[in-house]
Amino acid sequence: MNKLLQYTAGALAGIAFTASAEVVFQCGFRNPEDLKSFSAWQVEPEIRQDGVVLTLPQRVTTAGLTKKLNPADIAGRRLNFSVEARGTGIAPAREPWNGGKFQFTIEAPGHQSWPSAKIKLGNFDWETLAFSTDVPADVTNAQLMLGFQDSYGKLEFRNLKIETAAALLDLRRTANMGFADPVAGDGKGGWSDQGPDNDAHNFKWRSPATFANVPFAVIDPAKNNGRSVLTMRATNFPARLEEAEIPAPAGTVGNHLYLLHTLCYNVPGTVGSVEVTGNSGKRQTFEVQSGRDIGDWWNPKPLANAFPGAVWANNSGGRAGLYVSHFELDPELEGIKELRFRSAKRSAIWIIAAATVSEHRYAPPSAERVVTRADGRWQELARPARPGIVPGSALDRSFLSQENAPQDRIIVNADGLFARESAPKTPVRFLTAAEGYSTIFNECTTPEKTREYVRQLKINGYNMTRLHYFDDMLMRDAKEPLQFNAEVLDRFDYYVHCLKQEGIYLNMDVMSSSIGYTPGDAWGSDPQGRSYKFDIYFDEEVRRNWAEGAKKLFTHVNPYTGKSLVDDPVLAVLTCYNEQEFAFFRNHRNWPKMAPAWQEFLQKKYGTVEQLRASWGEKLPAGVTGWDQVPLFKAEEIRDSGNRGIDIARFLTSLEQNLYRWYAAELKKIGYSGILANYDMGQEQRYHLVRQEMPAVFMHSYHAHPSAFISEGSTMPQTSSIANAGGVIRGLNSMRQYRKPLLITEHGHVFWNNYRYEQAFVTGAYAAFQNVSGLTCHAKPVSVIPAKLYQIRPFSLMFDPVIGASEFLTAFLLRRGDVRPADGRVRITLDPEELYRARTFNDGMNSAHSRLTLLTGVATEVLKPGAQPLPPETDEVVLKTSGGTAVVNNLAGFSQVVDQPGNPFDLNTFVAELKKQKLLPENNRSNPNDEVFESSTGELLMDCRRNYMSVDTPRLQGICAEAGSKAQLSDLGVDELTTRGNLAVVSVDGDRPLRQAKRLVAVYATNALNSGMEFDEKERVTLRKIGQGPTLVETGRFRLRLRHDRADRFKCFALGIDGTRRAELPVTAKDGELMLDIDTARLPGGPALYFELAEK
């Protein structure tokens, strides 16, 4: 967060004066005439050649020169003051704010301020003093003072200048919202009514404020009844301003209008307008266009007419901000009388924080353009000649797999967990390797390569693979639909055979491609306008393609195994259609196909158009008399929370439920009896209803998703997942259904986020704590093919050593079960009808409820109509759904919840109740007010405000922490950490605990980047070039202590990323502790992330 605030401060820098500022007053103080407009008090000013001299031999309360300014000349303007001063014997005052004075006093109704420049004590030579201030529009008195207050000595002044640079429009009387929103979804706000974890209370500004080099008057909410911005009306927030009239200060002239503003729930097109009325009576109107003049407040980036002026980290972990936009004013306006802001009344919420009129065209700040290069802190990572982990090395996790081949089908047991059919009481967890095109087209081109590759999957600790977009691979070079590529199918068959040999299960999508099992480019612009994720709802030919493709693929007999996939236990789970939620994310060519179904749904519900109009009101256009005239909703209107929005949600839910039933029936026809799910990314609560009939829940979500992959200008939030209380795992677990497995089929802390090292603890440890059935970090974690560039990319894990270290630790945290599952559970009951009554169907789980994920087990029981919740079990508390949390869906392929707590449920009170009920021990350190959460087991501790998390289990202990952190866990002590990262020690000696293990691995994962990456700022938010190898690792020093029964019998080796021992390092022992002191910048052969501790 600090770095983001530095970015904002950068936008504030260099603001003292502007080239075209209007001079209000200036005085050289070189002749007596210069003093005529001043009044002297308790001092005799003396004009000399160098300037005016004020000599005060002894301390007085106040003495000096004062000058009044006409309020009408300066009202509503930014004033810049400067003077040259020299001092002799300036005595200190009794209060630090007194002494020598260059100060301006402003008086207005209910307000008084004293902006000033600090004058040094003692003796000093001529220097320029300067300050700026904003004068309120209702100023009644203004006076400048040069002299002394509670001080004495000799002060000399010369070259006084007062300038005004811009007219700052006064929004105070019209402002209707504050930066902070204490209660979400109550219709009162502030900000966008999304609650304290997704508002602007972290926006740090100072008065006078300058953003992107433009002066603005930002309202202090503490001085304006909590109101600081104009929040305009939107379909999601109708009780706001439809329009706002803002008078300009008298005498306002200028050719340039600047706005400081932003959007929530961004949509393309016009989001509002600004009408400018001139003194001539002429009007000029500007349409404010999303994508040109303004953008979404999350991940702001430069646009054609908008520049990020202020950026901050909100509590949900996002990078949020305000834009500065410029509009050219017509000279025929002859000065500005007023501005009128009008909402376009769409789903986007337009928020205006300030407006300025100036004669000056301010240039936006230039980019810093930071390039990553090797230096003392960032050093090249040595890579082996051939990728992969050396068998038998300390990084080999194959010992986690005990079975030779998956002979048993995976089932859902009575506890709602995955298990093998032959051992239903023993849960099975999956660490899944996400596979894609390179698996089939690069890694598995020959049987020998395939065997080596699959062997490496096992060595890396994976016991499942998820093959993604295989439908598109099968259609390589096809001329007709369903014309499978024989070579691709054969490679796949042998790959499956090898998976069985290594005891690895298979997870597949029946369909992933947007064009299904048909020829064409699944990733390009389709000339036929095919969008099968949407089309399959309404087009029988598309359904036929899905069903026949599934039949052809899954009933095909593999010549290497002798079985079809429907008969082979190796196929553990199927997703019907990857991320099908995208079907309704945007308007497209085929959108009108939905109209007949929509109209039929409404007719069935309402019976008559009159009844529909009684429900919808003005949302039904005048003149509609028949059902075929009822217009189809647009994608951006899906989040409407009114009666029409309820109908949209019910309609879409019914479509999705019915399509899943069709999928399940078609797969049953071909003999598939395994686990099936669909809709794997939506975190809106209505998706609980969609998934109610599914045997398991599959989910996708990411922390820190790039805005445009690796394209120039793509932005990455440089925020911590700990800072937002593990939002990524809370969002995923919020979709957990009672007595159903949760399989996370895509997740990741994405490159180039600085906090990727948190992934193993935030996602891996808490997934284990919640007894999640599997994790899939997306994508491609393993390769055995030497690369030329070793370029790290988002969603391509094989060359990212930080994510490699995270997956290493996750294998133990989750698969081996080093983190114990929660001792109890909170069951949250969800009544489908209550979702619609409360209008929270498009919200995620209430954020206070989701924070329970960090304390105890959490699952949602979806009630059937009229049903009562099941009775509470032992160590279980049952709660009703309360409130909601906004969901951000990203077209790049994930969704995440955005916190908005604020509801009758009080987490602090509930923590106390959990202690009374013995679901939390009395000594549990959780303090939700301070954002500190300790698990019921005592093994996990998250301190959000420190970006700190610890894992303390018998077999694995460590911390994620900022530089300078220290810790003492059960066995592990951290005495020094000079670079933020994940520092952990894990036993790799079977199931032996740390104190008894003969072989351990210490992991120090910090950050890694490509060489030659280019960014617009030092925080590495905005990407210009992705760079290439060699990989640069951020180095650091750590000192740790580890209790061990045989502490004096260990050697330490720095390991390569393949597990080879590179260099022996010193180990000391004292009082039953072994100690390491390692500086990764000073290691032979370059930095290391792994350190093997082996008993001699």
Automatic annotation (TrEMBL):
Residues 564-757 form the Glycoside hydrolase family 42 N-terminal domain. One of its GO terms (cellular component) is beta-galactosidase complex. Gene3D superfamilies: Glycosidases (3.20.20.80). Keywords: Glycosidase, Hydrolase, Signal. It comes from the Bacteria. GO terms for biological process: carbohydrate metabolic process. One of its GO terms (molecular function) is beta-galactosidase activity. Pfam families: Glyco_hydro_42. InterPro entries: GH (IPR017853), Glyco_hydro_42_N (IPR013529). Residues 1-21 form the signal peptide. This is Glycoside hydrolase family 42 N-terminal domain-containing protein.
